[in-house]
Specification:
223 residues; mainly alpha; 3-stranded antiparallel β-sheet
């Protein structure tokens, strides 16, 4: 290896010293930068933290306001619900009172109606009885006219009365006898009644015919 000259060695030493100085300067600058960076980061973090604190405070205030408003709103709702419930209770009580009044009126009206209906029914029954009496009186009147009128031609008064008072329908001897006795001929026997019918038949005022072993009698209309 070739040995360096003194001048070259001196130059090399100066160069190394200069490099070391430069490196030292760079290190110092680096430390400054790191310190500045650290300081800046701390300040930014402090500002961010401060902002975060302010935002949290604002959020807490807004949440408190919202909570207060919610509580007031809930209180208003409770008051309104209580008022509605109170009004509903009053309304129901009024309805019950009105229903009771209506029911009482209906019961009274129903009692009056039933009473009136009973009175009307009683009047109907009385009218019905009166109608029956009137019909009976008319019947007696007609019978009286028949009994007092002049006897039919060729008939005795008794025969004429039997002819006029018997019904126009065709019937057997027993039923016709029952009809004549109901009109007051209570002393007339069935045998005498049959004899009267035979005389009426002979004189052309009645006819008889036999059906299924039963003799039927029918009045013949004559002026």
């Amino acid at each position: 290896m070739a040995f360096l000259k003194d001048t070259e060695r001196e130059q090399l030493r100066k160069l190394v010293k200069a490099c070391l100085l430069e490196i030292s300067k760079l290190k110092i600058e680096l430390k400054k930068c790191q310190k500045q960076n650290s300081t800046s980061t701390y300040q930014e973090r402090s500002k961010l933290k401060e902002l975060q604190i302010k935002k949290d405070e604002e959020i807490r205030k807004k949440e408190a306001i919202i909570q207060d408003l919610q509580m007031k709103q809930d209180e208003e709702i409770r008051k309104k619900e209580s008022k509605i419930q109170e009004l509903q209770i009053k309304h129901n009580e009024e309805i019950k009172k009105k229903d009771a009044v209506i029911q009482d009126l209906q019961m009274k009206q129903g009692g009056e109606i039933r009473k009136k209906e009973a009175e009307l029914q009683e009047l109907r029954n009385q009218l019905k009885d009166k109608d029956s009496e009137i019909k009976e009186l008319h019947k007696i009147q007609e019978q009286f006219k028949l009994l007092t009128q002049k006897p039919k031609k060729g008939l005795t008064s008794f025969q004429s009365n039997v002819y006029l008072l018997l019904p126009d329908r065709e019937d057997n001897l027993e039923n016709l006898y029952e009809s004549i006795t109901k009109m007051g001929f209570t002393e007339l026997s069935l045998q005498n009644f049959e004899h009267a019918l035979r005389n009426l038949e002979r004189k052309g005022y009645y006819r008889s015919r036999e059906k299924d072993g039963v003799v039927l009698w029918k009045k013949i209309e004559k002026n």
